[in-house]
Specification:
The structure holds 2 protein chains of 2 kinds. Chain A is mainly α. Chain A contains 3 helices and no strands. Classes of the chains: A mainly alpha, B mainly alpha.
Chain lengths: 64, 687
Amino acid sequence: MFNDLAKLGKYLGETALLMVGQPDYDAYVQHTRLKHPDRTPMSYAEFFRNREDARFGGAVGKCC
Amino acid sequence: MNRILPKLGWAALAALGAISLSYVALSRGETINALWVVSAAVCIYLVAYRFYGLYIAKTVLGVDSTRMTPAVKYNDGLDYVPTNKNVLFGHHFAAIAGAGPLVGPVLAAQMGYLPGLLWIVAGVVLAGAVQDFIVLFISSRRDGRSLGDLIKSELGTIPGMIALFGAFLIMIIILAVLAMIVVKALADSPWGTFTVAATIPIAIFMGVYMRYIRPGKIGEISIVGFILLIAAILVGGQVAASPTWAPLFTFTGTQLTWILIAYGFIAASLPVWLLLAPRDYLSTFLKIGTILGLAVGIVIVAPMMHMPHVTKFIDGSGPVWSGNMFPFLFITIACGAVSGFHALISSGTTPKMLDNERYAAFIGYGGMLMESFVAIMALVAASVIDPGVYFAMNSPAAVIGKEAIEVAAKVSEWGFVITPDVLLQTATDVGEKTIISRAGGAPTLAVGMAHIISGAIGGKAMMAFWYHFAILFEALFILTAVDAGTRAGRFMLQDLLGAFVPVFKRTEKLGPNLIGTGLCVAAWGYILYQGVVDPLGGINTLWPLFGVANQMLAAVALTLCTVVLFKMKRERYAWVTIAPTIWLLACTLTAGWQKIFDPSFKVGFLAQAARFSAAADRGELLAPAKNVGQMQQIIFNQYLDAALCGLFMLVVIAVLVFGIRSCMKAYAENKPSSKESPYEALPESAA
């Protein structure tokens, strides 16, 4: 029961962050460690800025 | 038993939907409860998803759950990330939901709620959701490429360029129309203007906090930001009541136009993290929260629909916007039923995060159904207020006058009986000096939302708070859209200009950057300005132009979908996209033609230009022009609008011709010729 609630909370948090263009940081770190062991993953602050720039850097605007 | 139960459940749901809809449609004269409308819509959505959305997925497209998706193939933890389908649904919905589905249905309510309801529901099921879903599918089979790229590769470079040019024009029109909604909502409203202005320092504070104090802590600072917003609404009430402060925040429409243009230029030139990003976070969370709150409010309060199900303005003589039900109802409600702009989102970030093709229907089709539900709520909000108040708020001053007594007399004459006291009382309830001729949809929606939410929380005493909360909520995400849209428009423009003057492509250089931003702001600023000074109140001119443009982009996207179906050798199912394409072409080309050539000056741009020219020749001045120069200006604007409208028609016809050619070529081939990435199996772990 508490496990389910914790899982739900995690999902909701992830959803809220992805709504504003921030993917899951832990998943990014895990992926980089697993697939690119030669690279150092960005710190959370760097990751955050990288995603912020990516969200507004392209030619797709907000929807009407 | 296990097989029969679900079938019985679906049958019961279908029956409930049918009963609700017939109750809504067949009620004559009596007011009905809004829950009937909501339950009719929700039942139809669920049944449509199960039996049409999944039919398209399985039979028409043949989605393959063993196929590699770009998210898995190019997984980098950044742009390409395999994402849980529910989380991605939230992302996709937040990206497609905007002001469009909130405003269109409010304007359409002048014909009564039934025509709007039917089009929102039928349009989304057969056109809008189909478009969003199939474009998502097509993009995800092509490495998550964008709409422009997809059209280039499947139809050819020229139609691709034409479509991109069309998308740029649409962006400009959208920005102008959205900005005009804000101008109409904030004109002569110190309370509204103060709260919206307060969002700028609040956002900058949040931006600095997230950049330097506690980097990336969106959650905590958003809560702080939200509390500051509520405080701004409360202080706004004091500002409006203060004789010294209120005049400082009281502006006319024209003044607000110049303020917005200056704001747009500065905001789009600042670094993203300082103003745009933090405000985007606030507006996104506020948007989702308000939509959920409104849904809960409607269910708890169960308000009655006071608007007649069909009004006498069904004949096209309405004051809010002019033109017959066909085609104008179908372009007035654009986003809640079908929105071409979504094709850009469905081929943007979403396909790069889809972890399995089998969820494309849930996210693409389902996400659009949800958007349509937002449109239904807007329709409900516009219909629960007194119809007399609705018409007093949405008719131009030139038609109904300015004083409560004359307005009430005029609106009552139309059959929507109202006393001047009710108009004055409603204005006092929501904390404004007047509610007369507050066109643009947002204030009406705010009154409706305040009516519903105050029924659940706070009662009449809180009505002014909820009204300004609703205005703030709309203005916040419209300004975010204006800011982000100006940047996006600048990138598009620099790309287009860069083809001729290479230095423009350098998006990081300050010079080209500022010129690009300036040109972009000047373009939407001019259209905004002409809308604000428009003789028929702006909305009447610009909203149809926006609707036509947006639906034409949808026709372009659906043409792409049709071509791809032909190229996949699935042309026997292509009616799924051909039918909505034909309908959209019929609506938009008829509407475009009438907007240009209709002999009535209320509808046709050229007729309006001729009317002003004739008056100018006689040496007369027609309102709102105050001198000869302004007369010439209005005449020029009418020609400009007519030219824009004609340009949209050319864009869609050109893409259609290229589309038909590609279909015929694909039909003649004896094997599939679509340009999708070759099949690769999903790795075991991802499947």
